[in-house]
Amino acid sequence: MIVHPEELLYDSEKNPEVLEEDEDQGEMDTVFWIVLVIFTASQACIGWWYPDEADRAAIGKFDIIMTNLWAFFPIVQAQGLFLKLLLIGTCWYSILWHWTEVGFAMPGNNEMYGKFDALFSTLIIVSYAISWFPKFKTKIPTHAEERRSCWYKNCRGRPKETSEWRCRWTPNLILNIALCAFVSLYMLLSWPNTHQPVFCWLSIVIATGVALYHLKKGKMKVGKKFRFNFIFWAASGILMGVISFVYKLKGDEVNGANGNIYHSVWHVYVFSCAYCLSRASEYLEIYRE
Hints:
This protein is mainly α.
């Protein structure tokens, strides 16, 4: 069963803390789950469909490049320009890195592509975990200020719609950028010993803890009628994050066609994790009681 919002309970003009939901959200969720099931089933059957090693090697090369396009789902769904840019950077450098890894030519140093692929893959997990932190107080512009200034309309206050393409400079965003900058600096200076698994697993633990906090006693507590929806998306995102990283490690340990196929599963599930966490976070701000 697809879990998605059915109707808005508040008018965003009356309550500035409530976001407006995209009209086609239900359709987006349905397409997401259908194609995820199709991909998972097809990957599970590759060994039967292509018993020849050369065929599997060709499919593995195709998979490891094309599965980066799964970033479409979280890019569209992500709240705010910062998260969207991180996802776009992840998709871009992952395509470049894997393009060179399977033997295709690309100008520049392919080690640089690999370095930024690992960096952006880690940053999206870190950034999503941080984005769930309770919201600090920030200036809410008046309607007059928003009409008078593009800065107040697009860069200040709370988001007004789900999956906004705006960069609202709030204390939470500044904290998010600062921590991502710290992780970036550490990984770039310590390359190749980046401790990437530590950052990823720690972020998953933080996301789980913050989700439980919001359900129990957080100031942004999810409305009772929609807690199942929040739990569904939060649990799906955390589970997919775990699955994706398991396959990331398997792909790193196995060479050849199977290694590429395992790594392709990492691509799809880490982007699916990002999509689910975006959906869950909306229940912290759309529905209030």
